[in-house]
Amino acid sequence: MPHPEFFDAVPRLRMRDPLAQFLGAADDGVIEYGYGDAVRLAGHSCPTVAGAYGLTRHALRALYGADLPQRGAIRVEFREDRTAGVTGVIANVVSLLTGAAGDTGFKGLGGRFDRRNLLVFNADVPLEIRFTRTDTGARVDAAAHVRLVPGDPEMPALLQRCLTGQAGPEEALRFGAMWQERVRRILIEHGEDPAVFVVRAGP
C-alpha cells in the first residue's frame, strides 16, 4: 500500500500471541504490528487512529516493561459507550493490537485462548481507557490528548471547500498533505510526549 513515508518511522509493536503459536500462524507466536496495520484496519489515517495506536503502545510498554506483551491476555475497559464519539474507532484499533474482543470474539479451544469479554464499555475508570493484564492483574489508566497537537490553521477552511466540492485537485492534495502532517507530528514529534499520551499505573 503506497503511504506517507512517516508511517515507516513510527515505532512498531511486537506481541506474543499464544493462539498464533498454537495454530502455527507465527514462529514462537510473535506478531509485529505497525501504524500501517491500524490504517488498513480503519481504512484511513487520522489523529484518532494515531492516538489509539500510540496510546496502546505506551500502555503495553508500561504493563510489560522489556517483556513482550501477550496478545489475548489483556482486558481493555473504555469509559465511554461504544457508540459515543470516536470510541468505536479507537476500540477497533485497540482490539487489533491487544486481541481483546467483546462477546463476538474467539471462543477458544478446549478452555484456552478465549478472547471474549475482554473489551468492555461504560466502565467506571478515571481516564479514557484501562488496560489490565489478566495474568497478574497489573493495570494502567490511559488517555490520548491529540488535541494538544493542532493542525495547520488553514485546514478547517480547506476542509469545508473539499467537503462542498469547491476545492480543485491541487487544493484537495494540499488538504490531504496537511492532514497527514498533523498525524505525523502526533506520532513522531510527540510520540513520547507524556502530555499527549498519558499513562498512569492503576490502583
Are there runs of 5+ residues with pLDDT below 50, and where? Answer: none
Percent range for β-strand residues: 15-25%
Q: How would you describe the oligomerization state of the chains in this entry? A: single chain
Overall pLDDT level: 95
**Main sheet: strand order:** 4-3-5-6-7
Fill in the CATH topology.
Answer: 60s Ribosomal Protein L30, Chain: A
Features:
203 residues, alpha+beta, 60s Ribosomal Protein L30, Chain: A, two-stranded antiparallel sheet, 7 strands, 15% strand
Question: What does this 3D model show about the protein?
Answer:
This protein has 203 residues and is α+β, with helices and mostly antiparallel strands. 36% of the residues lie in helices and 15% in strands. It is built from 6 helices and 7 strands, in the order βαβααβαβββααβ. It has helices at residues 18-22, 35-42, 47-64, 87-98, 155-163, 169-189, and strands spanning 13-16, 30-33, 74-78, 119-120, 129-133, 139-144, 197-201. The strands form 2 sheets. A 5-stranded mixed beta sheet has the order 4-3-5-6-7, covered by helices on one side. A two-stranded antiparallel sheet has the order 1-2. α3 crosses α4 and α3 packs parallel to α6. The protein is globular and about 60 Å long. The termini are far apart.
